[in-house]
Amino acid sequence: MRPKTLDQYIGQQHLVGPGSILRRMIESGKIASFILWGPPGVGKTTLARIIANDTDSPFYTLSAVTSGVKDVREVIDRCRTEAGSMFGAGRPILFIDEIHRFSKSQQDSLLGAVENGTVTLIGATTENPSFEVIRPLLSRAQVYTLKPLDDNDLQILLDRAVKEDSVLSRNPVKIEETTALFRYSGGDARKLLNILDLLEQSTPHGESIVINDRVVTERLQENPQAYDKNGEMHYDIISAFIKSIRGSDPDAAVYWLARMIAGGEDPEFIARRLVIVASEDIGLANPTALLIANSTFDAIRKIGMPEGRIPLAECTIYLALSAKSNSAYMAIDAALAEVERSGNLPVPLHLRNAPTALMKKMGYGQDYLYAHNYPGNFVVQQFRPDSIADMKFWNACNNPAEDIMLQRHLSRWGDK
Known about the structure:
Elements: H1 13-16, H2 21-28, E1 34-37, H3 44-54, E2 59-63, H4 69-84, E3 93-97, H5 104-115, E4 120-125, H6 129-132, H7 135-138, E5 142-145, H8 151-164, E6 173-175, H9 179-185, H10 189-201, E7 209-211, H11 213-222, H12 233-246, H13 250-262, H14 267-282, H15 288-303, H16 309-321, H17 327-342, H18 357-361, H19 400-413
Parallel strand pairs: 1-4, 1-5, 2-3, 3-4, 6-7
């Protein structure tokens, strides 16, 4: 069921739809190096293969799980040698799956080939490249974010599977409900196809394959791992872990933590998620949470496992019991949306630095009021571009810490 062409590709229209960046690249035949960041089962590998096929480029693959520096150098040498003999072909594409698992030295070994154009690098990762990919490589490769498939995308995939799959198309299929099917799929095309595989295998020969909420739920409960052939239960459990902390249930959070530890999860992966939760879901309601989460990350790196389970549990319980606020998370997203809408608004002259006489003559820094020269270290002045002078991005959540912050803010700025 893997799509072979861009027209068959489902989802990610912000990247492959008409006029989008990757479609323009493909149509021009000039592919720059990039990294695809997104959850499993959303089409990262498929997209890389389609790009190579549509641009008639030699395609080489490495898995970061099984490849070392020697493998990287060998495939780059092959690219350099074989590409020279392929007249008219595009620049070789080197696809690296799970590039976040490459060590620094492995990533370093890619730099020269990417820089001099020996290969076009396409990486795929489920982890934030900002944390997992070295800065020199990030500067040479754009990062594109892939989103989970929505219900419309999953419906297209379901219809196509029923019609085109060699097994399903030979059997009568009754689609009565899709709510449970799509919910358990979680925006993951591979998982949806695996669930369909489970439903087909568990249906007696000669009977119709029935898809409704009751049947899907019953079959998955009977075979909780059957549709999880590629380890995606990992993502379901981390999701439950985060939501349990967000929902202030320490017992549930510790249970999911135990599931991850017992399953051999990378403790640094868990610690990173705790840092994210401390910022996104607790934030200003308890800024100490971020310090504790960072300390936990540091402790895990120092002591490792199995002792690391103790600071992980301590931090998990602390975050679950903490007051919650997403006001900082909402504020930065609102500000980013405004930047996207209004573009690069000019910095007001009085806020600009004036290191030269010419800049001072042009009014840079003129009329700036130095806050420490005023009572309470505060004086009213405008700190935003004129067109958004009255726009609000931060809205306090209802908790004791932010109540104090809000009152302090109102005493200075009123309702502005």
